[in-house]
Design a protein that fits this description.
By secondary structure, this protein is an all-alpha fold. The protein has 12 helices and 2 strands.
Length: about 325
């Protein structure tokens, strides 16, 4: 019946996902999304490969970038194949348990990405404000520890979310706003009190994205204070090493804030807004990050040029 609880029957409950009202353009929507996925895979894999084989790039900034690229590949792969299957074969239903697993990975990987961006900001702060201590503070062992902490932090903060959703009854409307599963969206489909979900969701985002963005901002305030004391030439050189990271921060946090605002204020009767913001949040960072670092970082740009030049000679 309509009051049947998703929590009581587990994986037998299906949720509708897709592009509501856009069924007639599914094939056309699939083309740019598939292209974005291929660009994300190719771009991030190229960045990881170049950093791995070029010993001159075995520096903290590039090693953090390799971790960021790996997270972006996993994040895109966690969602995009399912979306493409939905668009090409009209497989619009996702199992309840499958949805919970996808939700866990989306939120945990987003937390990991935020953690790595914070580590990259700390790297820029040490490199510009305390250059003599840079190599002794950010050793390879500590960089590896940052990767481990990012995974643990992402797992710990996201682990309660499936259990908080699992306890809720779902009745009536079971159509998701996005072609993938996120906590805010699933929570709105429940026909019960979602206060614990709201409280935990706000707490988690404040202690992860909120704290990280605050510390990133603080690191750049301190960088600006140091740079103001340098000569014009040195200031420009210092700023140039930060541009790629600043762009990566905006590419990650602006869609995240946009998606939160959409869930808070946009009406579910305008699905196109939810769909567009959801897709931007998930797929724009994996696509743009390798392009930004490839264009703005001289060493990576040079290695990419040499790599492809070598293939065509």
């Amino acid at each position: 019946g309509t009051s049947e609880s998703a929590a009581s029957d587990g994986s037998s409950t299906g949720l509708g996902s897709g592009f509501p009202g856009m069924e007639f353009v599914h094939v056309w929507v699939a083309i740019p999304l598939c292209l974005m996925y291929l660009i994300a895979l190719f771009g991030n894999s190229t960045v990881i490969y170049i950093i791995r084989v070029e010993r001159s790039l075995h520096e903290p900034m590039y090693l953090f970038l390799a971790i960021l690229a790996a997270v972006d590949i996993i994040l895109a792969t966690n969602t995009m194949p399912k979306i493409l299957i939905l668009l090409w074969f009209d497989a619009a239903e996702i199992s309840f348990n499958g949805c919970l697993i996808q939700m866990f990975f989306i939120h945990s990987l987003s937390t990991m990405e935020s953690t790595v961006l914070l580590a990259m900001a700390f790297d820029r702060y040490i490199a510009i404000c305390h250059p003599l201590q840079h190599s002794s503070i950010l050793t390879n062992q500590r960089i590896l520890m940052v990767g481990v902490v990012a995974v643990i932090r992402g797992t710990l903060f996201s682990a309660p979310l499936p259990f908080l959703i699992k306890r809720l009854p779902f009745c009536g409307n079971k159509l998701l706003s996005h072609p993938f599963c996120v906590h805010q969206d699933l929570m709105k489909l429940a026909c019960a009190d979602t206060t614990p979900n709201i409280v935990y969701g706000l707490t988690a985002i404040l202690f992860v994205m909120g704290l990280d963005s605050l510390l990133i901002t603080l690191s750049y305030v301190m960088i600006l204070r140091t740079v103001c004391c340098l000569s014009r030439k040195e200031s420009l050189k210092a700023f140039n090493t930060c541009i790629s990271h600043v762009l990566a921060v905006f590419i990650f946090y602006v869609p995240l804030i946009g998606l939160s605002v959409v869930h808070r204020f946009a009406d579910r009767s305008t699905p196109i807004i939810h769909i567009v913001m959801g897709d931007i949040y998930l797929f724009v960072p994996p696509v743009l990050n390798p392009i930004v670092y490839g264009i703005k970082t001289g060493k990576i740009r040079l290695k990419i040029a040499r790599l492809f030049k070598g293939n065509y000679i």
